[in-house]
Amino acid sequence: MDNNSKVRVRFAPSPTGYLHLGSLRTALFNYLFARHNKGKFILRIEDTDQSRKVEGAVENLINVLKTMGLDYDEGPDVGGDYGPYFQSERLEIYKKYCSGLLEKGYAYYAFETEQELDEMRRVQQMQGRQTMYNRRARHLTENEVKEKLASGVPYVVRLKVPLDTEIKFTDIIRGNVKIETNLIDDQVLLKSDGYPTYHLANVIDDHLMGITHIIRGEEWLTSVPKHIILYNAFGWDVPKMAHVPLILNPDKTKLSKRQSDVATEDYLKKGFLKEALVNFMALLGWNPGEGESREIFSKEELIRLFSIERVNSAGAVFNIEKLNWMNSEYIKNYDLEKLVDLSIPYLNKGGIDTSDLVKTKRVVFAIRNYISKLDEAPQQARVYYKNDSLNDEQKKIIGNETSKRVLSLLISKLESLLEINADNFKPLLSEVQKESGVKGKDLFMPVRLALTSEEHGPELGLIAYVLGKNEVLNRLKTFQK
Ligand code: GLU
């Protein structure tokens, strides 16, 4: 690939206030594709729809992309040679190109009011026809147009779709697509408020920003013919296209809020790790190919293996159990120090005091095999901080002669131990068992009750390790007498 054809791809969200999982995947595929090809990944904010403006949406979007590690080479906050990267700051550019289209006869003014358009649609619906603009304003004379413009009648600019022909294109994922142009609407390009529509702004920017490949959601496939007409009208090359299939609920309907969380932020909040989310989303509709049955891939491996040709054309089912499993794998194998840092806010939120860092680290070590996401940490950790008084039934168990014998023996063995580590407590219990002849529940229950005031819980070796020698001795001694 020579320098001129260097890959440039973009993620072009319209900020809605949160990052939908589908958009996250689109961003990720663009990112992986750019990094794999040593190209550029660009963030462009498509914010020309004033009615959909949401306060703080852009900041939030940028934050989530950064948290997810999808760093871009050009964009609103990092700059670049092709800016501005906010469409709302490019309005003059769109107007200029739109005027060019009007001059060359590729677009035309139309003056219908909302009511007239509604009526047009109503009649078409009644007649069972496709609802679209009836192209009436194409037939206005030059003078009629001039007069209306001069007297300030509100107008839009529409695309003059070439009739009686076909648009053909090849999508990297969907294959060949063909459509008769008579079925294509004379799309509004410039709205009456002077803002461009998505179609006009998107095509102009993709061209001016040198985009070589458009990778985006399948819902935009139907817009492609209009875009190709625009590229042709401008005399520009059409970028290569790849329309990524939808993400589906398990019942094969489109992933929706009603069936699961759809905002990336929600998953991050629950304590899914970014590495697990990246891994999981990458495998949603893409696979690394034959001979690769693994499911766990680092971002670097994904970059190395990614190819857009291997994206499946069928919808990808979002399987939350698989995400839970994958996240638990990442938690199990994560760098412990980092996992501690990530877990502390969750533990604190659950009311657990983490100021004793040595203990916190041991707790996280102990619970990492039992949680699938970080918001489960407090519930699993609680037992290591418990020291309640026992109920009558439990007091009876711990107060009987056998229990006392077990506790005394254990105390004496513990006293000669330097410190408790993750492996050396259980052998002590075996020794106690041998010497006292007490086994099973009679052996374990008094120890468990003394250490946690609970009858069930994690392995005793783990509990003793987390509490540490002094604390274990203190608790055992409380019940020895
Ligand atoms: N602004 C569109 C969106 O919100 C971009 C579609 C495209 O990538 O062309 O998804």
Please explain how this structure is put together.
There is one protein chain. Strand 5 (166-171) and strand 6 form a beta hairpin. The protein folds into four domains: 4-87 and 247-317, Rossmann fold (3-Layer(aba) Sandwich); 90-244, Glutamyl-tRNA Synthetase, domain 3; 334-384, Helicase, Ruva Protein, domain 3 (Orthogonal Bundle), CATH 1.10.8; 392-478, Arc Repressor Mutant, subunit A (Orthogonal Bundle), CATH 1.10.10.350. The strands form five sheets. Strands 3-4-7 form a three-stranded antiparallel beta sheet. It has 481 residues and is mainly alpha-helical. 45% of the residues lie in helices and 9% in strands. It has 19 helices and eleven strands. The chain has helices at 21-36, 57-67, 91-103, 114-126, 142-150, 198-208, 224-234, 264-270, 274-282, 299-305, 320-333, 336-349, 357-367, 377-381, 392-399, 401-415, 425-436, 441-452, 460-478, and strands spanning 8-11, 40-43, 107-110, 156-159, 166-171, 175-180, 188-190, 213-217, 240-244, 247-248, 316-317. Helix 16 packs across helix 17. It binds glutamic acid (GLU). Residues 12-14, 46, 198, 202, 216, 220 line the site of glutamic acid.
